[in-house]
Amino acid sequence: MKTLRASWRSIELREEGEWARLILRRPPLNVVDAPMAEEIAAALAACRGAARVVQVEAAPDCRAFSAGVEVADHLPERAPAMLARFDAIFREMAAADFMTLAVVRGAALGGGAELAIACDAVVAGEAAVFGFPEIKVGCFPPLAMALLPRLVGLRRAEDWILSGRNVSAAEAAAAGLARLAPEGDLEEAAARVRQDWLRLSSAVLRVTRRALRRDWMADLEAAEALYRSEILPLADAREGVAAFLEKRAPAWKHA
Predict the structure, then answer these.
(1) What average pLDDT score do residues 35-53 get?
(2) Which of 7, 85, 130, 148 holds its CA 20 to 30 A away from the CA of 110?
(3) Catalytic residue (one of 57, 92, 134, 224)
(4) For the chain, which residues make up each domain, given as ranges?
């Protein structure tokens, strides 16, 4: 295996023997901007042939796993580029020859929640919170549209996405989205997941995860096509983002 250790502006990649840590380092909330999205995709690409497990986590000085994508990047003129950069992360995950594990402390919201659920497993602290609030700013989360109904069922996914409400770690665990662990035992819980995978054949795991995920990228592409063709042309798509940035209630034209 090749050696891994690299730092970018907003992330760090650290080799830990047969596995690697991909550490999100954009305090305080790990809001993902365009350069950070590109860095995450590049780090995942670097892990091919170099790690059997990649653990995605926040740096200790961050208050959230990730509060999602920069809201301004959801503006209609910026959203296509944002989608392309964020989509590259999930394409790397789909093509990965390693297992992925998200360790969630604090909030995982919007694109941050999507990054977590796209991993093969999620370990969440008891105080963690998940949420898909995009509906509140006049859009929807394409990756969650494609993947969340597979993970928690259609009715529960509709509840979470259409309300935009926050979901506690306990509720997420009850739905099968995450494994719950006490805040002080998160690394121990993550280690158990990693060890289970490391005891198995990496080749068999690679083919099995590909079989389990065989259609999800096609579903993501379909969701993104709807986002581009039917969400972005709406005046409400611009109004929702503008209202958030201006810290006011949105005045929907199609209320």
Answers:
(1) 96
(2) 7
(3) 134
(4) 5-183+199-245
